[in-house]
Amino acid sequence: MDYDKGLGREWLVANGIGGYASSTIIAANSRKYHSLLVSATDPPLGRRVLLAGIDETISLDCESFELSVHKYPNTVHPHGFLHLASFRMENFPSFIYETGGLRVEKTVFMEHGKNAVFIEYCVVNPGFIKGEILFRPMVTNRGFHSTSRREDHRFESLASDAGCCVLDSERIALGFTSDRLGFVEDESWYYNVEYDRDRVRGLNYQEDIYSPGYFTLPLKGDASLCIAASTPTHGYDTSTLKDVCRSWRQIKEGEIVRRKKLVERAGVTSVFGEKLVLAADSFIVQRNDDKSVLAGYHWFSDWARDAMISLTGLTLVTNRFKDARGILSTFAKNAEKGLLPNRFIEDRGEREYGSADAPLWFIHASGEYLEHTGDSKFVREKLWKTIKSIISWYRKGTRGVYSDSDGLIVSSPHMTWMDAKIGDWTVTPREGKTCEINALWYNALKIAEKMARLFEDEDDEDSYQKLAELVEKSYLKFWNQTDECLFDVLSEDGADNSIRPNQIFAAALPNQPISIEKARGIVDTVERVLLTPFGLRTLTPSSPDYRKHYDGDAVSRDSAYHQGTVWPWLLGPFITAYLNTHGRTQQNLKRMRKLLTPFEEHLSDAGLGSVSEVFDGEPPHTPGGCAFQAWSVAEILRIHKELG
In the predicted model, what is the mean pLDDT of the chain? Predict the structure, then answer.
């Protein structure tokens, strides 16, 4: 196995409450976010990196073989990837090592709903080779956005027959045990461990890691065993964990059955569809008594915009209607003055409000829920009040958002999905009347009009209808006759004729504020200058502000984020818009299905079984950003299901 290639392929196992296990296919952590156990102490957030990994050393009479891989300054040691015969990602990540006459297969899985990870080892020893295998847990116990040094910790290790519990200075506990192995106390430190991906991204990338000791397996013949790790917060304490670990086979089988049922419920039949359904499951998480959506792994929290855009693909086309209700309820309960929390902030229990489009996506998602389920009772009792409140606040004005005399919505800088900001510099400010927010506004008014009619709310129905008619008339101001597409933004400084993908929503949403002829012009222009094999560019290459590559440190990445970088989630609305304007003929359906083909291969690249956040604007369209992104998976899955 090649080190550099292995470092670029990542795996993820999520536990449904915000925690996860993740690393690379060579078991070398390339990010500070990689760990065998990241716990969610305040689900789905409050995430802590607890168990960085387990070092495995095979000791025979004459020699030893180390299976782990660590990066230190100017060196990699040990080279465990040289013993890695293969890696597979079926239900769970499995590493198969062959060395010294032994075959060792390691499989990592989690218990759904628990901050607990299980590492299964199957040792095949046909020659009855004598020796032992040492399994050394590596402990960090820190917030997952940070790194730490030895002086930052005062670890206390408590070993017993049940295993070992490591406490940090804040008395946050990590316990680990084995179903059949004894634990030996032997404290040690790993100094200056480096994370290559974080170094390239300009982030903190060095830290020291603690180990309290090791488990020992005497080699005699074949063996099967499990090491489990957990934290008492939404998991198990050390004494309970011992009994749980003895049931690891049942826990593993239960998770396999759960995943199988998700695929069956979704009604997918292709391998591609199955992988997308299981990828979608990773993002749906518990929040209090309801549900939410993590925008992406490894570093995003739950964001309203991402959750609402993702809702159809993650829950509705997969028939997870209870989860859809939970997600919609979460954000309805957290609405404030017509706005939804653009994100819940890690570790602080706070919400940030600063999105002009998230509330409109909420109304869209509510309409989609009603269309897919016919559940008018839930919509009326749980969502209708929030929907009416959003429209009311947008009409009279709320923080950074208001309706102008022509009915169109005006928003402040940094309030659209193109929200990259470097210090005081908003990279794509888009202040004024933006084409997609006003397309969403029109769509929201028409959905509300339909709901008001359904709920026999005649005054609101009439009000929404009249306002929608005004918005539809005013929306003609966005038409750019020269380029036969939409202006991106209308402001006091004039019309911004940058060709961006935001206009595609005017042709893709269920209620469109433009004629079919103009919608077709939009689709054709977007296809000609923005479409790539992995989605839509965020800016036409002919623009002087176009950036070919999304790479480098935070400043470099953020300045390219919406200036040419490709976003795969935009392929969903593009395909919908194309079929809306060119017809759902067999030829067009076949052509649109073909646009999904590159993602079948991509599922074996970057984040295994998932879809990356972004890609470079130019070939070979290298993936970047989060390796596992909710709306990327959701929109590809939605289109895959709808195309059949």
Answer: 96
Q: What angle do CA 428, 433, 437 make, to 5 degrees?
A: 85
The Cα–Cα gap between 16 and 57 comes to: 32
pTM over 0.90: yes
Peptide bond connecting 78 to the previous residue in cis, omega within 30 degrees of 0: yes
| 8 Å CB contact between 360 and 417 | no
199-204 long-range contacts (CB < 8 A, ≥24 apart) are 200/551, 200/552, 201/552, 201/553, 201/554, 201/557, 202/552, 202/553, 202/554, 202/555, 202/556, 203/32, 203/554, 204/32, 204/146, 204/147
CA distance 514 to 511: 9
At 87, which helix (H) or strand (E)? strand 84-89
Position 644 scores a pLDDT of 85
| Cis before 126? omega within 30 | no
Tokens found for residue 322: 């209870």
Residues with Cβ within 8 Å of residue 69, at least 6 apart in sequence = 3, 26, 27, 28, 76, 78, 79, 80, 81
- Residue 604: other Cβ atoms inside 10 A: 11
Look up residue 219 and give its amino acid: L
Q: Residue 525 pLDDT more than 90?
A: yes
Report the largest interatomic distance among the alpha carbons of the chain, rounded to a whole angstrom: 87
pLDDT of residue 239: 85
Residue with tokens 């020992």: 216
What residue type is 118 in one-letter code? Answer: F
Handedness of CA 199, 203, 206, 207 (dihedral sign): negative
Q: From CA 417, how far away is CA 431, in angstroms rounded?
A: 12
Q: How far apart are CA 610 and CA 629, in angstroms?
A: 7
Are the C-beta atoms of 234 and 38 separated by less than 8 Å? no
Give the three-state DSSP class for 511.
coil
Which strands make up the sheet holding 116-124, listed edge to edge?
A: 84-89, 93-99, 102-110, 116-124, 223-230, 173-178, 163-167, 156-160
Residue whose entry in the numeric block shows the structure tokens 């750019």: 480
- What's the pLDDT score for residue 162? 81
Summarize pLDDT for 183-229 with one digit per residue, the tens: 999 999 999 999 999 999 999 999 999 999 999 999 999 999 999 99
Measured distance CA(299)–CA(144) in Å, rounded? 8
